[in-house]
UniProtKB/TrEMBL annotation:
SUPFAM superfamilies: Homeodomain-like. Residues 2-62 form the HTH tetR-type domain. This is TetR family transcriptional regulator. It comes from Parageobacillus thermoglucosidasius (Geobacillus thermoglucosidasius). One of its GO terms (biological process) is negative regulation of DNA-templated transcription. GO terms for molecular function: DNA binding. InterPro entries: DNA-bd_HTH_TetR-type_CS (IPR023772), Homeodomain-like_sf (IPR009057), HTH-type_Tx_Regulator (IPR050624), HTH_TetR (IPR001647). It comes from the Bacteria. Keywords: DNA-binding, Transcription, Transcription regulation.
Length: 289
């Protein structure tokens, strides 16, 4: 990664964390970075493209650290512990940015990102399978699909919890606790005599595939969201009128872009409408400011 590209990513992450994705303009990013807009567009086609590259940057940093763990002389249990600690530690470094992403759901879904998400899922699934089989042996093979789903769910739930904790968290203690709960689950499953719910071969079917992640946004989806928000703000005449005009304009066979842009400017400070604004801009290919 080139030095200027890394500078833009660092500055953007800082501003997104402080102000939010939608509230941060490309102009603010380039001003903070001390570069021109032309220099920005040499590396990133848009603000959405920049956000995707930030997540790719996270992915490669995390993968490098995990590969380093694999080279160490560790027992299977120690390796899984270090894996969990590594993930939680990396997440904690970018807590404010990830909270912004959780709050705004700003991540644009496209084929490139969908492939990355699927790749991360496959890598995580394979690592969990090998780790659990190494720790507990072939006896758990019939339940490996269910155990992976459970471990993934436990990790994700604690990840969301850690994001909003102000106190310092002992990630080794957390990872040890999670593995002890896996011990309990394995013991219980082996004693139960029950059949597995999800065979490993079917595991991927329970997660979003690329074609689902990249499905085209339709006008009816935008109109449905507008009507839903209108119900929430029926008490606010000005906001209701803005949404009403927006709905009517988007319903037209040939929507007038200046009218849509004007209505979006009326909504810019209404946090509940940020995801809707983002989708409308994407649908009509409106440029970031």
């Amino acid at each position: 990664m080139k030095e200027k590209e890394k500078l833009i990513i660092d500055v953007a992450m800082k501003l997104f964390a402080e102000k939010g994705f939608d509230a941060t303009s490309i102009q603010e990013i380039v001003n903070e970075a001390g570069i021109s807009k032309g220099a920005f567009y040499l590396y990133f086609k848009s603000k959405d493209a920049l956000l995707i590259e930030i997540f790719k940057y996270f992915y490669h940093k995390r993968k490098q650290k995990i590969e380093e763990i694999g080279k160490r002389n560790l027992s299977p249990r120690e390796k899984l512990t270090e894996y969990l600690v590594c993930n939680y530690t990396e997440i904690s470094k970018y807590k404010e940015f990830l909270i912004m992403q959780t709050r705004e759901q700003a991540l644009p879904i496209n084929e490139s990102l969908a492939e990355l998400i699927h790749k991360m899922y496959v890598e995580t699934t394979q690592f969990y399978k090998l780790s659990l089989m190494d720790i507990y042996g072939k006896q758990i093979e019939p339940f490996i699909g269910d155990l992976i789903i459970i471990l993934h769910g436990i990790f994700q739930s604690y990840m969301h919890w850690t994001l909003f904790q102000k106190k310092k968290i002992d990630y080794y203690k957390l990872a040890t606790f999670i593995l002890q709960r896996m011990d309990d689950l394995v013991k219980g499953l082996l004693k139960s005599g029950k059949e597995a719910i999800v065979p490993f071969e079917e595991l991927d079917q329970g997660f979003l595939h690329i074609n689902q992640l990249t499905k085209k946004l339709h006008k009816k989806d935008l109109l449905h969201q507008i009507r839903k928000i209108k119900k929430q703000y029926s008490h606010s005449s000005d906001l209701y009128i803005t949404l009403d005009v927006l709905e009517a304009e988007i319903s037209n066979e040939k929507p007038r872009i200046p009218v849509i842009q004007g209505m979006l400017s009326n909504l810019k400070d209404i946090e509940d409408t940020l995801p809707l604004q983002r989708q409308i801009k994407k649908y009509f290919h409106l440029k970031e400011k």
